[in-house]
Design goal:
It contains 16 helices and 11 strands. By secondary structure, the chain is of the alpha+beta class. It folds into 2 domains: 2-203, 3-Layer(aba) Sandwich (L-fuculose-1-phosphate Aldolase); 220-365, L-fuculose-1-phosphate Aldolase. The relative contact order is 0.13. The mean pLDDT is 95.
Length: 367
């Protein structure tokens, strides 16, 4: 049964930290007019058949031809309403992945969507598109950065039709700028072959690798910072420290931190907030923290300290640890992107869109 295969490869890829972090990534399968897609807030590493939402494919495809309001909030609210209406009656208590429409437009039986740092070194690289075109030619479809949700699905649908008219074949690998990769195939083995091909090709081109070996250990100074951050962040919050070699290198100065001061992908915004705070010393922490809150309207989740690495803060130990992992992922992307023309962060406009997007707000609350 396709759902058994879906669960198997979801668990396999979801358990690989090089491919999946936190709630990132989603999978799907199609059978008899039904799309089985990962539910929002579930984890690929341990998802079971019950974690997938059954969707009516025909109702989803109708959405692509429907005229929605032009305003962002109105359009996304209307599209979300129709997305929920496409659930089978038995699924009314589940919320499908925000990328459900993207899964539906692939004709292949299985779809795998991931955000590996290695691949995002390319998709977040200044020369990423040109390099991808040279490397993969018509083996992939590249999608320029755009608003997620309905807009992204609509653009992809149009580009996929154009690709098939030009090449005579369906898209099976799609790279999304500042986002990740979609891979589609009718077999689990086909998914694996395509993913391995993309990953091995990019790995062979790397000129620099991140170094996450130990550098600075926790001590009285880091404990002082953690206590202060918990006090500033609020009751029941939690702070974790990261002082590996790459973190210390990026925190050496504000100039060294520059590659990380804007987000690379939506996941970094969801779990780390859009911008880290950089402070020169402990004495500058309180003013920097309060100034950040005044500027952005919320406290920082990542605080970089000159020469020390960084601290991740959250409303719980789990959320603080998730923010730490996602910021390490951002460091990986920054280093990998140097092999693909240098970093290309998300635009300010799209960053603001993600911050205010209801579905991403929902996703961040589930992790």
């Amino acid at each position: 049964m396709v759902v058994d295969t879906l669960v198997h490869f979801s668990n396999k890829y979801g358990s690989d930290s090089e491919l999946v972090l936190a709630g990132g990534g989603n999978t799907s399968a199609k059978e008899n007019g039904i799309l089985y897609v990962k539910g929002s807030g579930t984890s690929l590493s341990d998802i079971t058949a019950d974690g997938f939402v059954k969707m009516d494919i025909q109702k989803l495809m109708v959405m692509l031809d429907k005229k929605y309001p032009s305003g962002d909030s109105e359009r996304e609210a209307a599209a979300l309403h129709d997305l929920m209406a496409a659930r089978l009656p038995s699924e009314s208590m589940k919320r499908p992945s925000v990328e459900t429409l993207l899964h539906a437009i692939f004709p292949q039986r299985y779809v795998l969507h991931l955000h590996p740092a290695l691949i995002n070194g390319l998709t977040c690289g200044a020369d990423g598109k040109n390099i991808a075109d040279t490397l993969f030619k018509d083996d992939i479809l590249w999608i320029d950065i755009c608003k997620p949700g309905y807009i992204l699905a609509n653009i992809c649908n149009k580009k996929m039709k154009e690709y098939k008219a030009r090449t005579g074949k369906d898209v099976s690998v799609m790279l999304l700028q500042n986002h990740g990769v979609f891979i589609a195939d009718d077999t689990e083995g086909g998914l694996s072959e395509k993913l391995d091909f993309v990953m091995s090709t990019l790995r062979s081109l790397l000129t620099e690798h991140p170094d996450f070996s130990p550098c600075l250990s926790e001590n009285a100074e880091t404990d002082k910072f953690k206590a202060a951050l918990v006090s500033l962040y609020g009751e029941n919050s939690f702070a974790v420290y990261c002082g590996n070699k790459e973190a210390v290198k990026f925190s050496s100065s504000l100039n060294d931190a520059d590659e990380l001061l804007k987000p690379f992908t939506p996941d970094h915004i969801v779990y780390c907030k859009a911008n880290p705070l950089f402070v020169e010393s402990f004495d500058a922490l309180r003013d920097g923290f309060e100034g950040y809150k005044t500027k952005y309207g919320y406290p920082p989740k990542i605080v970089m300290v000159k020469g020390m690495g960084f601290f991740a803060v959250g409303e719980s130990e789990k959320k603080a640890e998730t923010a730490r992992l996602l910021f390490i992922d951002a460091m990986k992307i920054a280093v990998y992107s140097r092999s693909f023309g240098g970093r290309l962060p998300m635009t300010d406009g799209l960053t603001d869109f993600i911050i205010n997007w209801e579905v991403e707000s929902y996703r961040s609350k589930q992790n």
